[in-house]
Amino acid sequence: MSDRAAPVELVFLWHHHQPDYRNPRDGHAVLPWVWLHASKDYLDMAEHLRRHPGVHATFNFVPSLLDQLEDAERGVPEALFELLSRPPGSLDEPQRTELLTRCTVSPRYAIERWPAYRRLCERAARARTAGGTEVFGDDDMLALEIWFLVAWVDPLFHDRPAAVAVLAPQATFDLPRRDGLLALHRELLAEVIPSYRALADRGQIELSESPYYHPILPLLINQEAARRPRPDVLLPSEPFAAPEDAALQVERGVARHERAFGRRPAGMWPPEGGVSPEAVELIARAGLRWAASDEGVLWGSLPPGEQRREALYHPWRVDTAAGPLAMFFRDHELSDRIGFVYSHWNAADAVADFLGRVRRVARDHAGDVPPVVSVILDGENCWEHYADDGAPFLEALYAELEAAADIRTRTPSEVLAERASLPVLERLYTGSWIQADFRIWIGHPEKNRAWELVSRARRALVNGGRTLETHPKAWEALFAAEGSDWFWWFGEDHYTADKILFDKLFRDQLQAVYERAELPTPGWLQIPVTALRDAGVTRIAPVRLLTPVLDGRRTNFYEWEGAGHHRLGGGGGSMHRDQSLGRDLYFGFDLEQLHLRIDFAPGVVPKPDLELAVELLAPRPRRIEIDGIVAGERMVVSADADSAGSPTDGLARPARPGVPGATCIIGSILELSVPFAALGVTAGDAIELLVHVLHGGQVVETFPADDLVRFKVPDRTFESAMWSA
Fold first, then answer.
1. What is the Cα–Cα distance from 438 to 226, expressed in whole angstroms?
2. Residue 289: C-alpha distances to residues 269, 413, 477, 637, 670 (Å)
3. How far apart are CA 243 and CA 220, in angstroms?
4. Angle, nearest 10°, between helix axes 175-201 and 138-151?
5. N or C: which end of the chain has fewer CB within 10 A?
6. Distance between CA 665 and CA 668 in Å, rounded?
7. ∠ at Cα 660 (656, 663), nearest 5°?
8. Reported pTM
9. Own/partner long-range contacts of 121-128 (Cβ < 8 Å, ≥24 apart)
10. For 17-42, what is each residue's pLDDT tens digit?
């Protein structure tokens, strides 16, 4: 060991990342977390380090976060801050409810520090409760807004004039005070990127990046990669592999980073630490020198006899077809102690424990080259659980590290610059930082459903001849839909009160793919990915073949016995939300025909200017339409042949040919039969369909509103298979 080498080298990598909250139609942000974390976390993380120039660290920025920060700086609207800028008296009831909900979501330390804010939050919770008696007036709303805005300013910046004016004893809570805080948030947000650029320019930090929209690279390259760590994982029914997209996300991420910070990054934190041999090859091909993942991936990469603790404490070389790549593997426990444990400790005790564990690595290390301890974690979300947003912990930690002679903080590039060679990792395991697999992003029915929608949208672009060169904005929406965050929130692994909003934003991105490509938008994007789990909703699959009498009434009790059944509620369209046209949807089949039945809601008589459309979504798009629903009449059924058209496009349609063998009659119920041959499907095909009620070409209700009708076209073994099941 040379005289100037430290006994241990400590690499911090703080990851800055938020989902893309922008509505693809107007670019406006629908959730405030980029704005709020900018003034509470991003800027103060840079400021804490600036105060300790002897401490080096790495910060990883996701390119789509850089986009959102710059959008906000340019004044692109965000939904919550737009509401916060209005006089409380101008708000309608839904807007007041939104603020009563949003403005009580603040860091724990802030609610504990200011009793006046805590009391307002408690009152706001009572005020938004249906039937509650709590009165929450305009002055109360203004005070709640002001406290919320202060709570999301890091204590480091409470000396700014706008914060001083509010936190002073006996401060007046008025509109100028609130507007001053809104201006302070914009001021702090505008300082984020320049602050990190300045730290990088003086050599104190290294800036790394992730692929553009934070996709899980191994899954984007080929979903089959999920089976390597978990052979039992249930993959989506539609295979998906887009290595070209993965390469573009990496390459465009590098270019975006260079535009923001004036230099190309040398390294990458792959989203969620997700790596595979194919993924690291793409990273190396983009000219990056290093990447990082979790120690679980390292243990999976090493033979059992070589899985010793000291193997974690140095970088490895992975050889790829595109050249070598250095790999750093995070110390899982040390990283998680900062992320989840030390927030409950006294700051001095937490720092002593952390440094003691780092020093223990040095004591246990054999060899002349200093061990490298990699601590990698989220740089924004954990601090709200710490006292004063983590300031006592970070200040004490950085001060101790700056004074320590036996610990040297380094960036990955600094470590590599001093090492002539690295040990070679002969085999790289495929996995992420969570249990060294990908179950958080694939395998659950909701997650798989989301992947299938992405797969269909991409296939529509490719099959339609829409290239990145001819329709770049359509592909941009697809790339955004490939991001990891949608799949993170689908399923039961994680909770957010905004899950329905995330679901809609995800489907909006996919709808933008079709709209920007000038392709008809498929009806399946109207159906939430998230299961609504309403105890009053019934979903039953068909269990026997049936051939009903089509007469518009219940001919006999057993006519529809064994049919599939969806109990219907309020439909999914923009009209008649208070009363659904349909109460029940039954579906079944014989070997030749699909049969549908709709039971109308009590007191409902279909109007003659309504239309009915059966939209076949899979295995291939087709729409069957019935013009002019009239009770007591047999209707003409027609089709748009092989159309992927959306019933919501509102366009005039040419005359359609009749569907041979199709029959629809409306009496006390609606009954419809369509030959499978007319739908272009055969035995064994997996069917997905919706039923729409239209008025003037616009959907007013969709059956079912929260799911799809799903079944397989039967063959002669259907009933025997149902019987044995």
1. 6
2. 12, 8, 29, 63, 65
3. 7
4. 10
5. C
6. 10
7. 95
8. 0.81
9. 124/100, 125/100, 127/100, 128/97, 128/100, 128/101
10. 999 999 999 999 999 999 999 999 99
For the record, the structure tokens of 656 come out as 């359609």
Containing 632, the helix (H) or strand (E) segment is none
- Predicted pLDDT of residue 534: 44
In the prediction, which pLDDT does 612 show? 79
Taking alpha carbons only, the member of 387, 341, 270 closest to residue 17 is 270
- Mean pLDDT, the chain, rounded, equals 89
Dist CA 107 CA 122 (whole Å): 15
Contact 314, 422 (CB under 8 A): yes
SS3 call for 443: coil
Q: What is the pLDDT of residues 251-269, one digit of tens each?
A: 999 999 999 999 999 999 9
CB 631 within 8 A of CB 608: no
Residue 569 pLDDT = 59
C-beta of residue 267 within 8 angstroms of C-beta of residue 292: yes
CA 12 to each of CA 171, 357, 412: distance values in angstroms, whole numbers, following the listed order: 41, 15, 9
Amino acid identity of residue 353, one-letter, is D
Closest CA to 707 of 447, 488, 523: 523
- Evaluate if residue 719 carries a pLDDT over 90: no
Phi–psi pair at 132, nearest 5 degrees: -70, 160
According to the 3-state scheme, what is the secondary structure of 531-549?
CCCCCCCCEECCCCCCCCC
- For the segment 487-540, what is each residue's pLDDT rounded down to a tens digit? 999 998 888 889 999 999 999 999 999 999 999 999 889 889 986 544 344 568
H or E segment at 50? Answer: helix 43-50
Q: Name the region of 239 (left: φ>0; alpha: ψ -120 to 50; beta: rest).
A: beta
Q: Where are the beta strands (DSSP E) in 568-725?
A: 582-589, 593-600, 610-618, 622-627, 634-635, 637-640, 663-666, 669-675, 686-695, 698-703, 709-712
Q: Could you say which DSSP state residue 223 is in?
A: G
Predicted local confidence at residue 697, as pLDDT:
67
